[in-house]
Amino acid sequence: MNGLINYVSCGVLWLGLLAKAPALLRHRHDPYLRSICAVLALAGLAFLLGAPPVIAYVNDTSGVPNLAAPLTYASITAYGAAAQVLIVHWRGGPGVRATARRWIAAYACVVLGIAAMFALGDAPVERRTDLDTYYATTPFIAEMIVLYLCGHLAATAVTMVSSLRWARRVDGWLRASLLTLGVGTLCNTGYSVSRLAAVVARWSGADWSELVTVVSPAAAGAGALLTVVGIVIPLIGPRLADRRRARRAYARLAPLERELDGILTRRALRLPRPRCASPATLLIWRQTSIHNGLGHLDAHFDRPLYDRVRAEALRETADPELADATAWATVIATAVREEPDRVLPAGPDRLPGPPPDPSTLLRIADALAVRPPPGTPRAHGTLSRAGQG
Length: 389
Hints:
Number of strands: 0
Protein name: MAB_1171c family putative transporter
Transmembrane segments: 6-25, 37-58, 70-90, 102-120, 140-161, 173-194, 214-237
Largest sheet: none
Structural class: mainly alpha
Low-confidence stretches: 373-389
Strand content: under 5%
Distance between the termini: 61 Å
Radius of gyration: 33 Å
Keywords: Membrane, Transmembrane, Transmembrane helix
Helix content: over 70%
Number of helices: 16
Region (Disordered): 340-360, 370-389
Mean pLDDT: 86
Order of helices and strands: HHHHHHHHHHHHHHHH
């Protein structure tokens, strides 16, 4: 009776709305975003109005017993209209606006029907949690209940089928989003079905009130949570994936930075490590330090050694990218060891072209991760095989 499920569900839905608000402010004329935000806002409103304490407040303030019921049913119906409009924009194609307007007009008629049935009916006894079954046989009130439940069931069923059908045609984060939305709307369908079952049972003289007071709120709460998760997955998922890739790249570059550590420290080429930084910032910091070290060692890179190692690695692996990484790893390790002692003269023996790109740096670091100490037999071949792993 304290409405905890309603408050939590409303809060979750409105948090999802808050997450979408910046995008809506930037693209306020985007019908797709407006539909998503309408779904979240109206579903949250329906949960809030359906909380027993709020029901009591509305009824006491208005002086009309059970006035909260048609208000709640109207918000649920408006949510159904928003869900249908969202599906229309998802599908796209010609006549999107006309189709959306027809759905809105149809559900507006349902709302008017709910108001008319409540005005014509008589519900003098306040029921905060089981109005659907208590008044299931009362003229006009029963029609009002069936009307809103059928409207809600139609909206959730169409949304569920459309989401799951579209999920088979896409992949990645969008697929995960649609599958989650499909399961969420399945739970919402359980809300309508359980209440309709309880109403039909009441018509036959049975009492299945627990379907209304226990099962349907739980189904609606689960549906609200999954709906929000499904909507925010495309927003949060790619960001999490980017953070994970940056974190992995940062870790993979560690062997190359360690190889250059002496140069970076001795020549003060390493920038101060940023504090409380994101994985992407840390990755840029490490890449910058590595490029500083490679830029300093440029005069010490041995072109004949590079060509020799690359040719050997290419014979062993038949992989040009791996051969390049192996040759770079050997040349860098040699230059670090010999940097204080010699500088190669400018000319054909200097490595041409730009420094290694980020993907090449990762392959070089992978090769260095298992590189044997300089001078050991088959060092070059070991580098080649390491790069393959």
